[in-house]
Amino acid sequence: MPTGRRAGSRGARPETGSQVAAPVSRPSPVVGAPKVAVLSTGMAERLAEQKSMRRHRLVRKVAAWTVGVALLLGGSWVLFASSLFAFDPDHLVVEGSGTTVDMAAVVAVVAQHEGTSLALLSTSDVHDEVMGVQNIRDVSVVRQWPSGLSVRVVAREPVASVPVEGGFALLDRDAVTVSTVPEAPAELPVITIPLTGDDTRTLDAALAVLESLPPELSAEVGSIAAQTQDAVTLTLRSGVLVEWGASSDSALKVQVLATLRGNEVSAGSQVFDVSAPTFPITR
């Protein structure tokens, strides 16, 4: 009896009409493929906001610089080029002490700068120009904004007269000749020291002594003489002779002379020698 094969046993053929499911193939993953980064909507908005803020700050800086430059240019024009700060002679104030300076000449010198901006006007230049006016000893120039100047003049005032050819030279305390007159003014002492020669030390010493005197004593001095700078003598209008010596220790000499003239014993003396003030002599 032939041996039969069991249904479903190995090697058995499938029955006719039966279907067998084929295995499903899956795609192999691609090795090394880049990952795509995905930004959240919130992050994108923040980046856009930061970019907008940077652009806004830049615009503000540019606008601020533009306004600053415009203000600088405008202010410079107003200060240096406009008529607002231009010097106006109608706003010039000239003051001075003394009577030997022609103030109209001072005004004319300063008025030449009419129309110049006060910011560009050199007060030192104006000072030098005014010093060129006769008999000015010193001058100060101050800006008076917006368009004026204040000029204060110190004149050379004569303090003594010196005999010269044709009259008398009136000297100020710096031995500068203020003017020449035919006769010596009664109110000024006469210095009998020649102006000739290069050695002016004797004349300077006499003027220094005169300047050191108090007003009441200076008014009494009729003449001053000196052989050398250390031998100055004063002749008072009363005829009293004061041997002063050098111009040093003048303050002490003034006190000693006042004491001697006020003393009952020495008040009537005709000669007061205070050249050595700690050892005065009268006769």
General description of the model:
There is one protein chain. The chain contains six helices and twelve strands. Strand 4 (160-164) and strand 5 form a beta hairpin. It has 283 residues and is of the alpha/beta class. Residues 1-21 have low confidence and may be disordered. A six-stranded mixed sheet has the order 7-8-9-10-11-12. A three-stranded mixed sheet has the order 1-3-2. The chain has a three-stranded antiparallel sheet with strand order 4-5-6, with no helix packed on it. It has helices spanning 41-81, 103-111, 123-131, 201-212, 215-218, 250-262; strands at residues 92-97, 136-144, 148-155, 160-164, 167-171, 177-181, 190-191, 221-226, 232-236, 241-245, 271-273, 281-282. The protein has three domains: 45-81; 85-155, membrane protein fhac (Ubiquitin-like (UB roll)), CATH 3.10.20.310; 160-282, Rossmann fold (3-Layer(aba) Sandwich).
The main β sheet shows up as: 6 strands, mixed
The name CATH uses for the topology of the largest domain is Rossmann fold
Q: What CATH architecture of the largest domain would you give?
A: 3-Layer(aba) Sandwich
Rg: 53 Å
Low-pLDDT parts are 1-21
How do the strands line up in the largest sheet?
A: 7-8-9-10-11-12
Which geometry do the CA atoms define?
Answer: elongated
Total count of strands: 12
Structural class: alpha/beta
Order of helices and strands: HEHHEEEEEEHHEEEHEE
The CATH class name of the largest domain reads Alpha Beta
How many distinct folded domains? 3
Treating each run of at least 4 consecutive H or I residues as one helix, how many helices?
6
Name the helicity range.
25-40%
How confident is the prediction overall: mean pLDDT?
A: 83
- What is the subunit organization of this protein? single chain
Protein name: Cell division protein FtsQ/DivIB
Organism: Sanguibacter biliveldensis
Keywords: Cell cycle, Cell division, Cell membrane, Membrane, Transmembrane, Transmembrane helix
InterPro entries: Cell_div_FtsQ/DivIB_C, FtsQ_DivIB, POTRA_FtsQ_type
